[in-house]
Amino acid sequence: MPNHEHLKLLLAGAVTWTQWRNQNPEVEIDLSYANLQRENLRGANLQAVNLHQADLSHSLLVRTNFSQAILSSANLSNSKLVEANFYQANLTLANLQYATLKAANFQDVILIGANLQRVNLQDAVITNANLIGTDLIFANLKNADLASSQLIRSHLSFANLIGANLVFADLQKAVLYEAEMMQCYLYQANLSKANLTRCHLGSCFLSRANLSGANLTNADLSFANLTAANLSGANLTGANLRGANLTNANLTGAIMPKTDDD
Predict the structure, then answer these.
(1) Alpha-carbon gap, residue 86 to 66, rounded angstroms
(2) What does the alpha-carbon distance between residue 203 and residue 5 come to, in Å, rounded to a whole number?
(3) In sequence order, which residues have a C-beta less than 8 Å from that of residue 43 and are 6 or more positions away?
(4) N or C: fewer beta carbons within 10 Å in the chain?
(5) pLDDT score at 262
(6) Which H or E run contains 150?
(7) What's the pLDDT score for residue 2?
(8) What is the dihedral of CA 82, 85, 89, 94, to 10 degrees?
């Protein structure tokens, strides 16, 4: 249960809340299980606040500071979180379905098992984040920065990753069925055993990427840069490799698409 004094202060308004926090920086704020549904907390300072299993759905949270906050199992679905700051926050098993998170800061966050179906994360910074097993089906990640993030076993089917930065990202066993990944940056990304069936990877930068054992059936790799990539054991049946650069790529045991000469 939330601390009722803390909850009352937060709902008293931005001026009261900010003043109290500035005067009591040492207080550990407990708003766990709080009902904050449909509240206007635009720009509020919720740094390091315990919001475990709190209901923040349908709320206005533009530029709200959630850095280092505990948001495990919290409900943020359908909320407006444009430019919100989640730096080092814990969002394990949180529900962010349909949330608007454009240009939000998710650097160093924990999002293990979180539900981010159909979220708008365009231009968001999600570097060094833990998204193991995260559900990002139909998510908009256009131009998002996911460099060095862990996306092992994450679900990204039908996601928009056009122009996203996934340099050094770990996508082992991730599901990217029919994902839009044109012009993605995947330098040294680990896509081992990932499901990239029907994935759109045209003009992607996949130099030195690990695609060993990946399923690239009917994938579009036209004009992709695959120099020195590891494609050993990959399934490229029906893949479009027109104009792709495979210089020094490892194709040992790979199933290659049939050509007109076959």
Answers:
(1) 5
(2) 55
(3) 14, 62, 63, 64, 65
(4) C
(5) 53
(6) none
(7) 85
(8) -10
Residue 30 to residue 54: CA distance in whole angstroms: 10
Q: Rounded to an integer, what distance in angstroms lies between the CA atom of residue 14 and that of residue 60?
A: 13
Q: List Cβ neighbours of 160 (8 Å cut-off, separation of 6 or more).
A: 139, 140, 141, 142, 179, 180
Residue 261's pLDDT band, with cuts at 50, 70 and 90, is low
Q: Which two tokens stand for residue 32?
A: 């766990």
Nearest to residue 44, comparing CAs of 26, 56, 33? 56
CB-CB contact of 235 with 253 (8 Å): no
Report how many helices (DSSP H) and strands (DSSP E) the chain contains, helices first: 2, 0
**For helices 4-11 and 14-23, angle between their N-to-C axes, nearest 10 degrees:** 130
Q: Are 135 and 112 in contact (CB under 8 A)?
A: no
Helix, strand or coil for residue 217? coil
pLDDT at residue 201, rounded to an integer: 98
| Alpha carbons 50 and 29: distance in angstroms, whole number | 6
236 neighbors 255 (Cβ within 8 angstroms): yes
pLDDT digit string (tens) for 245-259? 999 999 999 999 987
pLDDT in tens, 33-59: 999 999 999 999 999 999 999 999 999
Is 60 buried (19+), middle (13-18) or exposed (0-12) by CB count in 10 A?
middle
Structure tokens at 124: 């968001």
Residue 133 identity: G
Which range among 114-128, 153-167, 211-225, 248-262 shows the weakest confidence by mean pLDDT? 248-262
